[in-house]
Amino acid sequence: MRHGWRYAMLGATLLAGANMPAAQADSTDPLAGAPGLGDPYYPLDGNGGYQADHYDVTVSYDPPTRQLIGSTRIDATATQAMHAFNLDYDGPQISKVTVNNLPAAFDRNGDHELTITPLLPLLPGLPFTVAVQYAGPVNSSDDSGWNFSPSGGAFVAGEPHSASSWYPLNDSPLNKATFTLHASVPQEWEVMSNGIKVDDTVQNGTRTVDWDMRQPVAGYLTTIAIDKFQFLEQQRANGTQLLSAFAPDALKAKDIEARLPEILDFQEQLYGPYPFDVAGGIFVDTDLQFSLETQSRPIYAPWTDLDTVVHEVTHQWWGDSMSVQHWSDICLNECFASYTADYLWPERKDGKDVDAQYRETVAKYHDDPKFWQISLQNPGVGQEFTSVYYRGPLFLHALRRTMGDDAFFPAVRDFVMGHKYGNASMPEFRQFMQTRTPQDLNGFFAAWLDRTDRPGDEFLYPGSLHS
Ligand SMILES: [Zn+2]
Fold it and tell me: If you measure from the C-alpha of residue 311 to the centroid of ligand 1, how many angstroms do you get, rounded to a whole number?
């Protein structure tokens, strides 16, 4: 994710942060799947007792009335004996739930819990199928779900929550699954989503588009976008198909997106082979405050520039293919996306002196305590998307200058490739980087990642960064 703001524009409210009490998962019933996976920031995200393996989502959407009719089938595997389990869902009204094709009781509770009680208990290790039918109008809700476009179209975007606004799921990066979408709209509209466009057929005034994401994807990285799109089709030298879509007032971004093959080549040299079958982007013309790295096809806000595209494409490795374990690990996503776009691209493409850029930035905020006060590792709930952008790149540049390019670049590539299609944490990253250098990094990591004040000069000005 990238916001339209920069540190210099940050108000006191955002830096003060949110102070939300953590809800507790009810673990009193041993035969009910836990209603959350215990994320330190969002303990009720995701659910225990099963693993979702594949989502097959069928929706029809009518832009004039904003009516959604949905039917989602989830192939899952029970990890414990259960007479009840939860999905995360806060979309339109549910009419029917079945488990293994038998009717199941259901109850909606809390912010986004859907508790399902199958007719027959589920047994550990066995696969089961859940089907949920629902219909009703969709609502926009504070950038965490449906957004509406000037043309009357709509799209879903939001981090960490958005998927539960249009289909029920196990909404945690810890449960990534493959994802298929069958979307129907009136024929004059187009549909974009993640992965391969398998089919696009118009029949009796209705357009149906099928999409297939064959690599596992976290819920917030799935999207559906409906608009009067124009398209840009490109191809990489290796044959990878690139499909990008532009809402009517977003066509000016075509020149930037035309550089996607070059951007992907640049990223591959840094981080290894592009992890998905296809790529592209969805350029909206809604007044959106953020761009988001939805898998294989980021959603781009109208203020998107080249730097933003490089940022979101970096996330395809750092965030999408390799996902956080917990939201406190967010630096793995945003520190790398920001460093790649703000430092590595200008350095390697434009010959910029990034050591000078680093020293100027440090000097500018040297005596600004607010700049240093939100820790990069475990920044706190509601503060995930702050310091990782403006201090994250400084951390990685200082780490690179501490280890040296010959150690740093192969190490970060091996780390992200080693967690392909999986999850990773900041503690794992620290341990891994330590194995790639004889220097003791403990003091460096503590100063840059754990502390809430400026690192000491020995960590601020390592090696060639010495002022
Ligand atoms: Zn980002």
Answer: 6
CA of 361 to the centre of ligand 1 (A): 20
Give strand pairing partners of 105: 117
Please state, in angstroms and rounded to a whole number, the distance separating the CA atoms of residues 167 and 133. 9
Q: Using an 8 Å Cβ cutoff, are 89 and 254 in contact? A: no
Q: Residue 206's beta-bridge partner residues?
A: 186, 203
**Which amino acid is residue 274, in one-letter code?**
Y
Tell me how crowded residue 117 is: count the other CB atoms within 10 A of its CB.
16
Residues 261 and 242 sit within 8 Å (Cβ to Cβ): yes
Question: What residue has token string 């996503």?
Answer: 333
Cβ atoms within 10 Å, residue 342: 23
**Protein fold of 324-465:** Neutral Protease; domain 2 (1.10.390)
Ligand 1 mean position to 1 CA, how many Å? 3
Instruction: Report how far ligand 1's centroid is from the alpha carbon of 367 (Å).
Output: 26
Q: Would you list the domain boundaries of the chain?
A: 324-465
Q: How far is the CA of 93 from the centre of ligand 1 (A)?
A: 33
| Dihedral over Cα of 94, 100, 103, 107: its sign | negative
pTM of the model: 0.95
Taking residues 28-46, what's their average pLDDT?
90
415 pLDDT more than 70: yes
What is the length of the chain?
Answer: 467
> What pLDDT, in 10s, does the model give residues 122-142?
999 999 999 999 999 998 766
Sign of CA dihedral 362, 366, 370, 376: positive
Q: What is the pLDDT of residues 175-230, one digit of tens each?
A: 999 999 999 999 999 999 999 999 999 999 999 999 999 999 999 999 999 999 99
Determine if the peptide bond prior to 160 is cis (ω within 30°): yes
Could you tell me if 280 and 260 are in contact, meaning their C-beta atoms sit under 8 angstroms apart?
yes
